[in-house]
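User: Teach me something about this protein's shape.
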Amino acid sequence: MAVVGLVFVTLLRDTDLGMLLPWINRVRHYLMPAAVLGDWFLRAPTSRPTRRDLGLVLLFPLMYVAYSLRRGAATGWYPYPSFNPGAVGGYTVVGVYIVAMLVACVGLGSVLRRRRTA
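Assistant: First, the predicted structure itself:
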């Protein structure tokens, strides 16, 4: 969720997201990432996440990206412009965005993994 907020603020803040209602956008892309990070720092888990935990956490975002790309190719609609190869200059650029988001997820996960637990 923290990466969702970071990506949205840095890449998509001024992007027209079509039919997405403004309040849903604020909750999904601003409030929830802040709430998740706040919860982590205010009430740290009692044990540190393992590398396996980080790998499991990456499964959902990777499946979401794969589904979004496949669905977008079939329907012409992508949930974010960075997933749309026609809008960003091809699948290579989409791949760069995806790798950057993956690196951000792994990096943030590694930082949180090293954080002292309660």
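Now, about its shape. The mean pLDDT is 84. Residues 68 and 78 are 6 Å apart (CA to CA). If you'd like, I can walk through any region in more detail.
User: That's plenty for now, thanks!
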